[in-house]
Amino acid sequence: MLKSKPSAKVKYPKLTDVSKEAGVSAATVSKVINGKSDVAEETRERVEKAIEKLGYSRSGKTGASSNLIEMALQHLDNPWTLNLLDGAAKVASERGIRLVLSEIDDPGLLSTTWLDEVLARRPLGAILIFSNPSLSLARRFASRRIPAVFVDPWGNPVLDTMSVQSDNWSGGLFATRHLIDLGHRHIATITGPDSVMCSIARFDGYRNAMSEAGLAVDPSLIRHGQFSVEDGERFGMELLSSHNPPSAIFAQSDFLAMGVYKAAKRLGIRIPEDLSVVGFDDIQTAAFMGPALTTVHQPLVEMAARAAHMILDVRAQKTIDHRVILPNSLVIRESTCPPTTLRS
Asked: Looking at the structure, do residues 78 and 223 belong to the same domain, yes or no?
């Protein structure tokens, strides 16, 4: 009878292995791992490349040494962000955890000084809002055993990166179907950057709804920009001033919808009598716009709360879903109605 040989014990890279690979002392590697600032940038890069090449990970259950969660956002002064902050803050308060906020205008800066500061604080975990879950950034968190959750990420999550987002595709579908069901056929859309995952998904939902209704997607009725009031107004002026203006606009964020409202007012176009508008997000101010905005409700509070719970569950060594997609719903208010041709 043949006996199988015992499998070889897996050998995990040690700090000294990283030291040899990078050609620096173990003390220098330790400084880089712990986010110390007194390391030359060139040396830091060499150590990080060695960590990534060898797949080094800090020993122990987690790299946490402080009772705090880091949260990185692009803007702290808008309702969209405040909704997310409410969700994370509620969980942190219930669990006696401090929330550290960082406003980072350029997501590319996440992997520079900010990350070094985070690593030095050794938090329970990090929540990154609307950022790019790059392989390098994910590995730097993983090597320190710091759970990181990307909320509404720009691109597809990599490796075992944790992420939370809403069902953007269904939201785009619901919004466009609502306008079609009202009788609109000439429907424009203003969306975000075509390189961002949520923009792509919302636009695909729009296209699918048009296709299932047998309606052609007219390129002249499509605009790609930023999720901003300024782009909503700019593209709204273009669309509504054209020789064949749309009877409805699906603005793929509430900020874009606000811009469309401004454009319509400048042109003397009434909402919803002359133009139906649907937004996306359902931020706190959407219900108080004049008229109240029909929009896709994105569960922003719940998304951030789920991200915080994921970090704590990883700390407790619980099994979790690494990719969470929460459902959206359409909130019908006063900014949509049947087109004029069906009301006469």
From this structure: no
Q: What is the pLDDT of residues 80-122, one digit of tens each?
A: 888 888 999 999 999 999 998 888 766 555 556 777 788 778 8
The domain in which residue 192 lies consists of: 168-299+330-343
Q: What is the length of the chain?
A: 344
Determine the Cα–Cα distance for residues 92 and 99; give it in Å rounded to an integer.
7
Same domain, 251 and 337: yes
Q: Is the pTM of this model over 0.85?
A: no
pLDDT in tens, 209-252: 999 999 999 999 999 999 999 999 999 999 999 999 999 999 99
Domain assignment present for 43: no
Nearest to 48 by CA among 123, 133, 143: 143
Q: What CA–CA distances, in Å, run from 108 to 133, 136, 173?
A: 10, 11, 31
**Residue 75 DSSP SS3:** coil
Question: Both 218 and 103 in a single domain?
Answer: no
Cis amide bond preceding 79, omega within 30: no
Count other Cβ atoms within 10 Å, centred on residue 116: 17
In a domain, 23, yes or no: no
Residues 180 and 240 in one domain: yes
pLDDT tens-digit map of 170-195: 999 999 999 999 999 999 999 998 88
Cα–Cα distances in Å, from 237 out to 233, 240, 265, 278, 292?
A: 6, 5, 10, 16, 21
Same domain membership, residue 137 and residue 79: yes
Query: Is residue 320 over pLDDT 90?
Result: no
Residue type, 32: V
Span 259-264, average pLDDT:
97
**Domain-located, residue 51:** no
Same domain for 251 and 217, yes or no, is yes
Tokens of 85: 């902050």
The pair phi, psi for residue 151, each rounded to 5°, is -100, 125
